[in-house]
């Protein structure tokens, strides 16, 4: 009588899930301790066991992004998006990398998809504004940047971009209006715009 030595598929699946669970805990602990390279290796091991592990896909994607391997990063983020199509951040991640790659139309589509899922995702509005500027769709970009400032009123980035767009549209007075607002809470950014645009803010003598 022969004895079966192989593991039953159901048992194998349970074992794989359990190993992935503990590996995720290990990877998270390594990240907290600052051992990013070791955590990256663990996430890669997770993907060898389960190629559809979304946490591992995103984590490896961010590592590739930080290492400037944009095509590789995009591949991981796209795989995560297929698995979580209703996650606004998944769309944003794809849009961010596409914008970095200069693939403006794909980035625009991804950012708009993120916004459709979560209208208050401020960074998606900012990313959308950037890709619209790249396409010289300035009026539309101002709408996107303005929405970003409504969601993050004390962040200077969209205000800065709005001033630059107004200059591109030959609207120096509107650019100055934005710069005056910026000067109230981010004077360094306002001063940078003065240097870049040649416009001058009225300041006390």
Automatic annotation (TrEMBL):
Keyword annotations from UniProtKB, A to Z: TPR repeat
Keyword check for Kinase: no
InterPro entries registered for this protein in UniProt: TPR-like_helical_dom_sf, TPR_rpt
Keyword match Methyltransferase: no
UniProt xrefs under Gene3D superfamilies: Tetratricopeptide repeat domain
Ranges for the TPR repeats: 54-87, 88-121, 122-155
Highest taxon listed in the record's lineage: Bacteria
Protein name as annotated: Pilus assembly protein PilF
């Amino acid at each position: 009588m022969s004895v079966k030595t192989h593991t039953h598929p159901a048992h194998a699946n349970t074992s794989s899930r359990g190993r992935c669970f503990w590996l995720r805990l290990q990877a998270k602990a390594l990240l907290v301790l600052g051992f990013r390279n070791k955590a990256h290796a663990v996430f890669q091991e997770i993907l060898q066991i389960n190629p559809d592990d979304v946490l591992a896909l995103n984590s490896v994607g961010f590592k590739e992004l930080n290492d400037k391997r944009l095509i590789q990063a995009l591949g991981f983020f796209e795989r995560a998006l297929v698995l979580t199509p209703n996650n606004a951040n998944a769309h944003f991640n794809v849009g961010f990398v596409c914008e970095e790659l200069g693939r403006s139309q794909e980035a625009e589509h991804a950012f708009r998809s993120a916004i459709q899922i979560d209208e208050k995702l401020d960074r998606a509005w900012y990313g959308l504004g950037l890709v619209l500027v790249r396409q010289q769709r300035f009026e539309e970009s101002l709408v996107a940047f303005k929405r970003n400032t409504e969601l993050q009123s004390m962040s200077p980035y969209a205000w800065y971009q709005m001033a630059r767009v107004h200059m591109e549209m030959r609207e120096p007075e509107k650019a100055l209006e934005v710069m005056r607002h910026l000067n109230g809470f981010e004077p360094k950014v306002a001063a940078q715009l003065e240097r870049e645009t040649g416009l001058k803010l009225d300041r006390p003598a």
